[in-house]
Amino acid sequence: MKAALPLQCDALQLRAGGADDGRVLVAALDLRVQPGERWVLLGPNGAGKSTLLAALAGLVQPAQGRIVLGDQPLAAWSPRELARERAWCPQFWLDPFPVTAWETVAGAALVSQPGRSMAECRALAQQCLEQLDAAHLADKDVRTLSGGERQRVALAAACAQAAPLLLLDEPTSHLDWAHQAALQGLLQRWSAEQGTVIAAVHDLNLAWTLATHALLLDGSGGAVAGVRDEVLTAQALGQAYGVRVSVLDEGAARWFRIDFGREAV
Ligand SMILES: Nc1ncnc2c1ncn2[C@@H]1O[C@H](COP(=O)(O)OP(=O)(O)OP(=O)(O)O)[C@@H](O)[C@H]1O
C-alpha cells in the first residue's frame, strides 16, 4: 500500500446536512493529520462526527473554509483519484439487492483500480475477507448477515479499496470483543505502513487504545484536537458528554469510567 497523503482543514465550518441554513456542527476547525496517525472522533450524539467524516471523504460540502488532501483542495480531486486515496466506511448500509459478500468487497477493489481483472478483484476480496475473519461468509447474500458479520464485510470492502486514508464511522459498533481486538490490530498495522485512520467511536476505552490523536466535538460547534493524552481527559470528556467521567492511569494505559448514577459535571 502506498503512504497516505497529509490531510488538513483550514477554518472548516460544517452545517447539519451540508445545508446553508443547517445548525453549525463545526465552527472553525483547524486540523493537521499526518500519514501513520490514528485519530478518533468523539462527541455526543448529533455533534457532527459522521458529517465531518463525510466531509473529509469529499461527500459533504463545507459551509466555509477548506479541506486539503496532499497539495490540492479536496474539491479539486476527481472521484476516481479520490477513490485511490481514501475509503469511507459509513455507519449504516442499505442492501436492496441480493449481492454476495465477495461481490461487495470485489466491487470496492474495482472502484479504485478499474483496470483489474475480475479474477484479481476476487482474489483481493478473499484476502480482505480473511483479514476480517469473514472468509466463510464470501458466498452469502449480504442481506442475510448478522450485524457484526455485515460490518466485517463493510470493513473488508474499505480495505479492498487499498486507499491509504481510512475514514471509519463507528467501525466497532456491531463487533464482539474478539473482533474489536482484531480490528484494532489491523488498524495499527495499517498505520505502521503509513496509512492513516480516522474513526468515530463512542467507547472511550477503545478510543484510548486505538488512537494516537483525538478530536472531541462539543456539539455546539467547538472542537478540541491534538495528541490523545491531552484531549482524552476526564474534564474535557465530562464537559462534552455531560456525564461524570473518572480516569484510572495504570502504567501506560488509561481507563475511563462513566458514573451513570451521578449528576453531570
Ligand atoms: N441530511 C441531513 N439533513 C439534515 N440534517 C442532518 C442530515 N444529516 C445529519 N443531519 C443532522 O446533523 C447533525 C449531526 O449528525 P451526525 O450524524 O454528523 O452526528 P454524529 O455526531 O455522527 O451523531 P451520532 O453519535 O448520533 O452518530 C444531527 O443533528 C443530524 O440530525
From TrEMBL:
The organism of origin for this protein: Viridibacterium curvum
Record-linked PANTHER family: HEMIN IMPORT ATP-BINDING PROTEIN HMUV (PTHR42794:SF1)
Domain ABC transporter: 7-244
Keywords: ATP-binding, Cell membrane, Membrane, Nucleotide-binding, Translocase, Transport
MF terms (GO), sorted A to Z: ATP binding
General function of this protein: Part of the ABC transporter complex HmuTUV involved in hemin import. Responsible for energy coupling to the transport system.
SUPFAM superfamilies named among the record's database cross-references: P-loop containing nucleoside triphosphate hydrolases
Protein name per the record: ABC transporter ATP-binding protein
Keyword Translocase: yes
InterPro entries: AAA+_ATPase (IPR003593), ABC_transporter-like_ATP-bd (IPR003439), P-loop_NTPase (IPR027417)
